[in-house]
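S.,

Sequence below, as promised.
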Amino acid sequence: MTDFHSYAPAEGHRLPHDPFNAIIAPRPIGWIASMSAEAKRNLAPYSFFNAFNYHPPIIGFASTGAKDTLANVRATGEFVWNLATRAQAAAMNATSAMTEADEFTLAGLDMLPSTRVAPPRVAGSPVQFECRSTQIIRLTDHVGGEIDTWLVLGEVVQVHIDPALLEDGIYRTERAHPILRGGGAGDYFEPGERFDMRRPR
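The prediction came back faster than expected:
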């Protein structure tokens, strides 16, 4: 019988570092571009990000603290998700800085215009989703206490894919060399082995 390291999170994990975000990993990165109502650009990565619905496609990210991205989406209802890849890892990391500067300029990133929303896309990112916000939900704990984290959900209204990632019309995930967030202070991953396993009928 395995002798598990067990703990109640509210009572502390008794480890040098909280393992939660290392266990739920690697996670896709929400590299989110947004604009304020005054058209000030913002670009920031979010490590709590994922897809939540297929039709219509809905993605979401969690903002811990009321950051600029959250304020911008509240004000305009729009954002753009950009696929973070190994080639742009350093630039993506640069945009995580807490700054009042334009993150596109700070990270030396060029922009592409969006077609249905105002925020620009990251040039060089091989996939971008233009999104319109559907819900902004403040998280609560199990007794209803409010947490300083907001889940931002958005419907994807326009998709842009580099044709180099398509093979006979099928998107090949590995060709993009996406990067994923781990749990340590600087842990990132790039997908390795791909294997095929179909659902039972």
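The chain is about 10% helix and 35% strand.

Coffee later?
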